[in-house]
Design brief:
The protein has 650 residues and is α+β, with helices and mostly antiparallel strands. The protein has 17 helices and 30 strands. The strands form 9 sheets. A 7-stranded mixed sheet has the order 22-17-16-23-24-30-27, with helices on both faces. A 5-stranded antiparallel sheet has the order 2-1-6-15-10. Helix 2 packs across helix 3. The termini are far apart.
Length: 650
């Protein structure tokens, strides 16, 4: 029988297509990229005779020239997400609402990662003991617990070490179809991406130290890969292929493998690419995302199924998009947003996305950034710009032993003033200044006031925060509302530039970019800086050491750096293995964060000062967050270029 037939090792370009990357930008068509391993994509298996027309696109995109980060052909562009309330089909609550996101140009693999391509990772020892470096700590623990040596659905076909496999399908074990997509967990997909970046990066012209990463798609990037319509606002039932076609017509008219059209997977190059240059944006297998499921703006819990989505909005359930061959009805809809833990198997595979310096929606945080939410944006606009008596209308002072709440409400100003004070005291140059994690920009604008730094660059992971910064810079003000109670909001308040910083000066002296503290390099930001502020970022990145190790390259010798952090470790952002402290060490003794952080910093910086700085965030009129971050002030010592991670980035 077929199940007893030996499967020979795959050959790229014959048994499965070579890797080819396409550029996704604000223009309509995708652009071809370099092929890893050489050669154009070859046909793998019988191609399906399908029409060129494709349905099921996301909402359209709008180009934004000269804004955001990433640059490249087409510039940063905007995509929209969310199912209209009046769309004529059933939907789960997490599909409804709205969200817009800026996407920087990026490259993605034209095809889903095939069994043949994934086989290379297995043969290279990706599951062996030496392969641990490719996995996240949680992923490696899962691999050890399962004691797996190859993907779960693969069946060894010969002696150990021969790496000959068959595939367990729904009803049978068949010769390995190397051209079918690899069905793996998110943990395995992430490990493959890291391995691929380090083993194939050079052939693609990629310098890994310059902030390039090969990761999983974000939800916004998946939307950008879809067909884009001329009239993005026209939404009707005939725009969703799931409503129009069954399994017989789906491949021919919608150009995809869903609705049980074939009863199984198909080759990753069976269908022609869409107008973006991407194959299988919909169908074949679900596609893992780097982000966890979060509610869109105006999200409402489904009245008949209250616990479908909200229990999973816990930072642990990751999005899968696009539908699989087995997906029917709502599961195959272009609006479908399903979510599972990273160790689950859900007919899911993945494609590679290449980014530079965090790119569009970098997966550094490991999940969708909660700071994209408009409620959080309003809270931070209040923290940065609201008068103290608006943030805290209960008078000065506070309970015994509590920091003065008026001072705590001015946290961004306190940070900026400290950097300016110390820089002048030690005679540091006042040319360029970087604020990494600038939030909604108050400290950056303070640093750019006349007589302070000549140029200030604000870098922020939240695109919603970046938009707020640029709107305020370009208009001089930005309205926001404070939450009073429940859904009740205050009248509009205006966040305003400092009185002595005009709009023209703000445009000339400040710029704001989307970026990632763990991948930023001087080359991406126009060179190193005379001053730098890093406020409350260290404990909100996946690998704090990566963030800290990049600081020497970002600050010029003699420059001043101010760092604040409350060391609020949370596995939603940072796996415990990467915490600097707040845990029990291997020797059984408690590890504290401040000493560990100081030890890392002392290799390239001199400690000038340290203190506690209270910070007050207003949630609503009777609930506040009070934090007391530790502030440390440093001066860059020597260049020591050999030890500076990312020092030659560009």
């Amino acid at each position: 029988s077929a199940g007893k037939t030996s499967t020979p090792p795959p050959v790229a370009g014959k048994a499965f297509p070579d890797v080819k990357f396409v550029t996704i930008d604000g223009q309509c068509g995708g652009q071809g990229g370099a092929a890893g391993g050489g050669g154009a994509a070859a046909a793998a298996g019988a191609a399906v005779d399908a029409a060129a027309a494709t349905n099921g696109s996301g909402a359209g995109d709008k180009r934004k020239n000269g804004s955001g980060s990433g640059g490249g052909a087409g510039g940063v562009f905007e995509v929209s997400m969310g199912k209209p309330k009046d769309f004529p089909s059933f939907g789960w609550d997490c599909e409804y609402g709205e969200r817009t996101a800026d996407v920087a140009p990026f490259r993605c693999s034209q095809h889903l990662v095939s069994n043949g391509l994934y086989w290379q990772f297995v043969v290279a020892g990706g599951y062996a003991h030496d392969g641990e470096r490719w996995w996240t700590p949680a992923g490696w623990r899962w691999r050890q617990f399962r004691n797996i040596k190859w993907p779960t659905w693969w069946v060894a076909d010969s002696a150990a070490g021969s790496h000959r496999y068959r595939l367990r399908t729904l009803f049978d074990v068949i010769p390995m179809p190397w051209s079918w997509p690899a069905e793996v967990s998110k943990y395995e997909a992430e490990a493959f991406g890291r391995w691929y970046a380090h083993t194939h990066g050079a052939s693609l012209g990629v310098q890994i130290d310059d902030g390039h990463t090969f990761g999983l798609q974000t939800e916004a990037e998946h939307m950008a890969m879809r067909e884009q319509r001329a009239n993005a606002t026209a939404m009707s039932g005939d725009e969703d292929a799931a409503l129009m076609y069954g399994g017989t017509d789906m491949p021919l008219k919608a150009h995809r493998n869903t609705a049980l059209a074939f009863g199984g997977s198909t080759p990753v190059d069976a269908f022609e690419p869409n107008s973006r240059g991407v194959c299988d944006v919909f169908g074949n297998v679900q596609q893992w995302c780097s982000e966890t499921v979060t509610p869109f703006d105006r999200f409402k819990v489904h009245p008949y199924y209250e616990d479908f989505s909200t229990p999973c909005m816990d930072g642990k359930h990751y999005l899968i998009l696009g539908g699989a061959w087995v997906s029917c009805g709502n599961l195959a809809s272009r609006f479908a947003r399903y979510h599972f833990r990273p160790h689950f198997f859900q007919f899911a595979g993945f494609r590679l996305v290449e980014r530079v310096g965090g790119g569009s929606g970098s997966s550094s945080l490991g999940s969708y950034n909660k700071y994209e939410n408009q409620t959080i944006v309003n809270e931070y606009l209040a923290l940065h710009y609201a008068p103290a008596n608006v943030v805290w209308p209960y008078g000065s002072g506070g309970p015994a032993g509590m920091p003065d709440v008026i001072d705590a409400s001015q946290f961004p100003i306190v940070c900026a003033n400290k950097l300016l004070e110390v820089a002048r005291k030690v005679g540091a140059p006042m040319g360029r200044c970087l604020e990494m994690g600038c939030a909604v920009g108050r400290a950056a604008f303070e640093l750019a006031r006349p007589g302070n730094y000549g140029e200030v660059v604000g870098v922020e992971y939240s695109r919603a925060f970046v938009r707020a910064c640029t709107q305020l810079r370009d208009n001089g003000a930005k309205p926001y509302r404070l939450r009073i109670e429940g859904v009740l909001l205050s009248d509009e308040h205006d966040a305003k530039l400092p009185a002595d910083l005009s709009v023209d000066d703000a445009k000339a002296r400040t710029r704001f970019e989307h970026g990632d503290a763990c991948t930023a390099t001087p080359g991406q930001l126009g060179g190193a800086f005379d001053g730098m502020l890093l406020a409350n970022v260290v404990c909100r990145v996946p690998r704090p050491t990566d963030c800290v190790e990049r600081l020497p390259a970002l600050v010029k010798p003699g420059g001043v750096l101010v760092v604040t952090t409350p060391f609020t470790w949370d596995e939603q952002y940072t796996e415990q293995a990467y915490w600097l402290g707040g845990k029990i060490g291997a020797d059984g003794t408690p590890q504290r964060s401040v000493p560990a952080f100081k030890e890392m910093m002392s290799k390239h910086f001199e400690l000038l000062d340290e203190c506690d700085v209270p910070m007050l965030i207003r949630e609503h009129e009777r609930k506040y967050q009070l934090g007391v971050p530790r502030m440390t002030v440093w001066r860059r010592t020597s260049a020591s270029a050999a030890a500076d991670k990312g020092g030659h980035g560009s």
